[in-house]
Amino acid sequence: MTIEPGGDDARLARTLAHAAGLALLEVRTGSAEGKELKDAGDARAQEVLAKLLAEYRPDDAVLSEEAADSAARLSAERVWIIDPLDGTREFSERPRSDWAVHVALWQRGREYGGRLTDGAIALPARDITYGTDDPPVLPPRPDGPIRLAVSRSRPPAFVTQVAEELGAELVPMGSAGVKCSSVWTNEADAYLHAGGQFEWDSAAPVAVAQSVGLHTSRIDGSPLIYNRVSPKLPDLLVCRTEFAEKILATVARHIPEVITR
């Protein structure tokens, strides 16, 4: 693995996600099962990402699911938002491949205005990494109903209601990163979520989705804002742009009365 100090952030994001993915595949070859395997995966991927970020971007702040948060990131110019292992359940259920590594960079300043600028998602068990350095090309979609990516184990009830009104087909799959990536790989047309998430769940997928040209927003249509005091970011819509208006209008008729902001 070659990393150039001070080099391109988007390429670094891809390299880091790939490196953590390789470490996770190695962990998965061991004898651990269940919670032990989940914990081992979380710890190993966090170790890899923390070490590389400390080496190659020592002055940047980091927000990670697997590390203590620090208020210092709120005044930092650059913040890496990472999920070392997105989809721990899926990771622990061999041979499932619907788990991921998320690496994203948020930047402040006049040029960036406080937004995601770079990101990558590794799907190690599928031997592929998507990144903003080389955005995927969105293929033409097939004819048929709107396809909504949803959780295999706990799809929000309101998503089912929205799907019924849209006449949409539900496509069950694993982690948030995999569900987002399903939109640009043409397995689904949209990922709609309101069951509670954090910034690390969506930052890297949203960065890549934006580079593809997909619609990204909260489920009320408002912008997704990162590096906030609370890292909670409970809902998300990633979809092909031609369906955004229709989905948002339908969601508005079913949206939960209280959305935590």
From TrEMBL:
What is the superkingdom listed in this entry's lineage? Bacteria
Q: Which reaction does it catalyse?
A: adenosine 3',5'-bisphosphate + H2O = AMP + phosphate
Q: Which Gene3D superfamilies match?
A: 3.40.190.80, Fructose-1,6-Bisphosphatase, subunit A, domain 1
The record's section on InterPro entries has: CysQ/Inositol_MonoPase, Inositol_monoP_metal-BS, Inositol_monophosphatase-like
Query: What PROSITE patterns does the record tag this protein with?
Result: IMP_1
Keyword RNA-binding in annotation: no
Query: What keyword terms does UniProt attach to this protein?
Result: Magnesium, Metal-binding
Write down the PANTHER family for this protein, in alphabetical order: 3'(2'),5'-BISPHOSPHATE NUCLEOTIDASE 1 (PTHR43028:SF5)
Recorded protein name is 3'(2'),5-bisphosphonucleoside 3'(2')-phosphohydrolase
Organism, as annotated:
Kineosporia corallincola
